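Follow-up to my post from last week.
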Amino acid sequence: MAEAPILAAEHVSLRFGGVRALTDVSFEVRPGEIFSIIGPNGAGKTSMVNCVSGRYRPTEGRVTFEGQDITRLGPNRRASLGIGRTFQNLALFGHMSVLDNIMVGRHHLLKAGFLRGMLYWIGGAQREELEHRREVEEIIDFLEIQHVRKAPAGTLPYGLRKRVELARAMAVKPKLILLDEPMAGMNLEEKEDMARFIVDLNEEWGMTVLMIEHDMGVVMDISHRVMVLDFGRKIAEGRPEEVLADPHVRRAYLGEADEVTQPAEETV
Amino acid sequence: MDLNLLVQLTLNGLIVGTLYGVVAMSFVLIYKASQVVNFAQGEFLLVGAWVCWWFLVDWQLPFWAGFLFTLVFMTLFGLVLQVVVLRPLIGEPVISVIMATIGLGIFFQALMKWIFGVFAKPFPPIFPVERVQVLGLEVQTVYLLSLGISLLIMLAFAWFFTSSKHGLAMRATAFDQQVAQSLGVSVPKVFAMSWAISAVVSAVAGVVVGVVNGVSSALSFYGIKVFPAVILGGLDSILGAVLGGIIIGLLENWAHYVDSQWLNWGNMFQIAPFYALVLILMLKPYGLFGTKNIERV
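User reply:
Got it. Predicted complex:
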């Protein structure tokens, strides 16, 4: 494993006032892998992902992406560098059509500025737009949402909305995609579909995946490596079966409090 | 009953209403994109009209050139205002931001009086023919132009928000800033752009009104007329703003008709929209097209 990590968190701590959401967490995600973060409620999983996506800035430590220090960059700059994400609670633009939702993900790739946009029918904007439309259609085909592309996103059933959100994150053309509980609230069939999409976008679309998920069956099935957080600290990392066998992990999941850590809460 | 007057006033109402609609649209644009209630919207008209007047009278430029320079100036004006005054206020309480825009309004009102004086000044004549006959009615040429420009602006808005990169980004930002950012949209840029567009569009309306009535501080009254219009339409609906503007335009002219024919109270023209405002707030506080805020606890 001499390959340089695509994402590295180095001694990341995050505090909100006196509340410690994360304490000295370090991990690396290698290009091409599916890396999962698991842990009990309030363990700091979403906080960790938010430090990567730029919504939070770590109080200490740094985050690098492809070797570049991104700790101080805003979320939109990180998206342009190639970090896409989905949200734990659905965050679609409800009254916009599915296609428009996905096209927003294209925003930073559309070069045509305001004036060229005005000259839409004359300049090269149209050709550029067609190219983007083609790629967006590929994503739509891949996620099997062709039949709802014109529908307002807010009117779709839950499982489909999750897929549209994934499509929108994929439209950013991320090298690294952050999935915050992609299967929360889904039934078994929807979960299987989603797991298949995640494996395919990893293998066929070449996107590295950093995922938070509660469904242990899915996590153990599709992840290459797993990190376990508990009360904001990393307590284990490794291949799924190693992590499952770890005594710290068993203790965290059986609900016994680890005597050295203070309870912390996620504030969001 | 004077039927001819009624038709004339209805036509007036439509024309003035579309202008209100345009101003209301630019007000809603700022509110939607950056959640700022802009009490200086009327001063955008005022500044735009005076700047255009200055280009035409002091610089003796032809109308098209003066108008074009005005648009360029107002773009910069909107950008600078947002970046210098409003950007530092992001995250501050709503009341501070409102006070800041009220302050801006007073400031520009006074500045314009200081530079250009307190008396209304007419634009140089722009059209060779002042009035034309439309379906047997006398209409000022500039009113027709105003109607044309207003419709053009509305179509441009519709295109911008449905088909352009920045329009989509603006809608996304209006809906959820954090999500928009995660998709690569720069929120500060969207804010700045919304102010620039709003300033330009208001200035167009300001020039049109200035050409009809002359330029004076009365222009900024349009900024106040915008409130009944947007509250009727719903604060965050562009379509609602347009319809609200037209309805308010018609309403005040019809109120004027009723007043002049029967009531003779005087001034109904000015007051009627605000009676409507109060009624709407009592009956339908989110307006015809506005979104209800659902508080989840």
